[in-house]
Design brief:
Oligomer: single chain
Strand content: under 5%
Number of helices: 3
Structural class: mainly alpha
Largest sheet: none
Number of strands: 0
Distance between the termini: 100 Å
């Protein structure tokens, strides 16, 4: 019987990868729990597709932005939202995977594995909380741009409209010369 922590990586191509012990062709193990002096999963890519994740590319784009115009702020907010969504989905899926993996551990014979399932949910709950934090990160980017629009752009547009109406000779109410009551406005 295999140990529950030696399950294959999620969505991985087990036959084409090297195992954690370095022998080719063996099953992809999660790791030895750090017994070899190297943390489990170090240097591996668990993206499911076997390729690079979009997260790295998005973070590089975010780092390259210099905010000088409103369009830069818009790009920054959109990238922050995309990073938050990507990170949230990834961490949520990893939390579910870890919960399923840890719940397979049998534990003591008299608990029939129920204790392990409860403990697995507790461990995965921390990652789920992190996924919710990543969602908040993504929403913060969108809220930042919305606040910029509300506090800077909208008042500027309204101020320009007010200047246009008075300069363009639009309808204005003026006081008539003298103390004429009921007369026509000049």
């Amino acid at each position: 019987m295999t140990h529950p922590l030696s399950a294959p990586a999620p969505g991985g191509d087990d036959e084409n990868r090297k195992g954690a012990t370095g022998s080719s062709g063996s099953s992809r193990a999660f790791g030895d729990g750090g017994a070899s002096g190297r943390p489990s999963g170090t240097g591996t890519d668990y993206t499911g597709s076997g390729g690079k994740t979009e997260l790295v590319r998005l973070i590089r784009q975010l780092e390259s932005i210099e905010i000088r115009t409103d369009r830069d702020l818009y790009r920054y907010a959109r990238l922050l939202r995309a990073i938050g969504m990507e990170l949230s989905l990834r961490v949520q899926m990893d939390a579910d995977w870890i919960a399923a993996l840890l719940s397979q551990y049998k534990g003591r014979w008299y608990t029939f594995g129920a204790e392990s399932r409860v403990r697995a949910r507790l461990v995965a709950g921390h990652l789920k909380q992190g996924a919710r934090a990543a969602e908040v990160l993504g929403m913060a980017g969108i809220k930042t741009y919305a606040a910029f629009q509300r506090h800077f752009v909208k008042p500027e547009i309204e101020a320009q409209k007010k200047q246009r109406t008075s300069k363009d000779g639009g309808f204005t109410i003026t006081e008539a010369d003298g103390n004429k009551k009921g007369g026509r406005a000049a």
